[in-house]
Every structure is written in structure tokens, then in C-alpha cells.
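Below is a typical protein record.
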Amino acid sequence: MTLAEMKELVLRIQTNEENNYNTIGIRFENKSREIGEECEWSKNNADREDERDFPEYGTAEYDEMGVMDGTSAWYISEVIATVSKQKDQMQDAQRFYCADDHCYIIAGYHGNQDGCDEGEVVIQEAKVIATIF
């Protein structure tokens, strides 16, 4: 899937689902999920200097982190803005987001909390409504 195709798909899903949910976001992760699956609440590492500096899942350091009040995702508008800035819209979307194996659209109820990263939304009762890759 190219970045252009991803953008079109994400916007179509958002348009089709926005009346069904209070909040919709995009979640990148390595875990394989099914449509309809409810996501676990995310861990919070607010004290990190770099938002990419996150302990590996399953380690003691990961287990000791605080828990957010929902599942972390990116606002769709943030992801679309990032994709739109790319000159090569034909590049592979999964390679562009190479840090994670999967991309999902998740939806539920707005649950932001203090300490969110710019463009981040925390979704309560978040469930997978679409798989992008």
C-alpha cells in the first residue's frame, strides 16, 4: 500500500465511522489484532526526554511504568498531515512507518489526560475498527 492509498483509505474510514464513535485514532504497534478487539490501556512514560525512548514490552522497566486512562493513538489529522508532506506519495506506507508491523484505526471515547504528546489522543474503551497494514 502506498502513502497515497493509505491516506485515501484512512480518510474514507474516518468519514464512514465518525458518527459512530466519539473519538477515532490511528495506532501503530507490533501486536497482531482483530477487528472488534478491545485494546489494552497504554503505558505512560511522561518523564522521557525523547518520545521515541520507550522501554521494550515485557521488560521490568516497561511493567513499572504508569498506566494511561485508555489506549494511546494519533489523531488522524496528524498522520494525514505527515503523509501529505511527503513528496513521494507512491512510497510504501509500511516501510515509511517501519518502526511497527501494524497500523490500525481504533475508536471509542475521548479520554485525553495530561502529559500526552503533541498529536496524541488517549481513547477509552478503544476497539479496532479497521486494519490498514
About this structure: The chain is about 25% helix and 30% strand. Residues 36 and 110 are 18 Å apart (CA to CA).
